[in-house]
Amino acid sequence: MTAADATPYAAALAAARSLLFVPGNRADRYAKAAAAGADGVIVDLEDAVAPESKDAARDAVAGWLAGGARAVVRINPPGTEWHAADLAMAAAHGVPVLLPKAEDPADLAAVADRTGGRLPVLALVETAAGVENAAALCRAPNVVRAAFGNIDLAAQLGVDPDDHQALAYARSRLVCASAAAGLAPPLDGVTAGLAADGPLPADVAHARRLGFGGKLCIHPRQLGAVHEGFTPSADEQEWARRVLAAEGPVTVVDGQMVDRPVLERARRVLAAAGRG
């Protein structure tokens, strides 16, 4: 796969509001996940697959990708016995990888080196070291976007993964690191609750307020709320159109002076709406 071949993948990942996990050892669910309406699918070879099933799961994913499927592959992290084979399989099929436990920029550089710089990479930041190194991780070769691993980080910190305040620092640091590196806003971590009256809408609203641009999902029923929450509302879009229509040397819209940062925000709102 050439750099030009990788461009559509990278652009799609940068624009995604939702990426839906499917276990790598459940080949019967691959097609269902791909048809669920997510902006992208992550086939998981790491947490979802027991050690004794890793090789068989990798082979199953390879077979599916060989048939023309498009997906991100969450490979096993550096230092594990499955990492090299997972990475080689993804490279053979020219698909992006989600690198778990991203905390050392050298690991991301090694992924780029071993794949000839051909694969877009999502850096999953889910450890304290990863949070503290977020700026360097977001600038690492081939990283097109960062994602937040709230469950693993909460376990390491000894806090509740659903506690917005406890993880606010980590989330904000990842948002700032992404912006500083010129990346799209990061993807927020998963919400474990699946009940209709569960925490998902509040989680989405919180992540968006902090500057996230999308969310990792674990079930198709989460997609509607995620897409709605990360797509600008009709009122936001109308505001953005009024701002851009009134663009001039000195302009006031809705009692607010319009200058360059406001114009840029309006353009981002309409660009995000266009992805919906």
Task: Give a topology summary.
Elements: H1 3-15, E1 18-23, H2 27-34, E2 41-44, H3 54-66, E3 72-74, H4 83-93, E4 97-99, H5 105-114, E5 121-125, H6 128-132, H7 134-138, E6 143-148, H8 150-157, H9 168-180, E7 187-188, H10 200-210, E8 214-217, H11 223-229, H12 234-245, E9 251-253, E10 256-258, H13 260-275
Parallel strand pairs: 1-2, 1-8, 2-3, 3-4, 4-5, 5-6, 7-8
Antiparallel strand pairs: 9-10
Helix pairs in contact: 3-4, 12-13
How many runs of DSSP E, i.e. beta strands?
10
Biggest sheet, in brief? 8 strands, parallel
Estimate the mean pLDDT confidence. 91
- Uncertain residue segments: 1-5
**What is the CA–CA distance across the termini?**
28 Å
Q: Can you give the helix content as a percent range?
A: 40-55%
Q: Shape from CA axes?
A: globular
For the largest beta sheet, what order do the strands appear in spatially? Answer: 6-5-4-3-2-1-8-7
CATH hierarchy: architecture of the largest domain: Alpha-Beta Barrel
Radius of gyration: 19 Å
Number of domain modules = 2
Query: Which structural class matches the secondary elements?
Result: alpha/beta
Question: What would CATH call the class of the largest domain?
Answer: Alpha Beta
Count of separate DSSP helical elements: 13
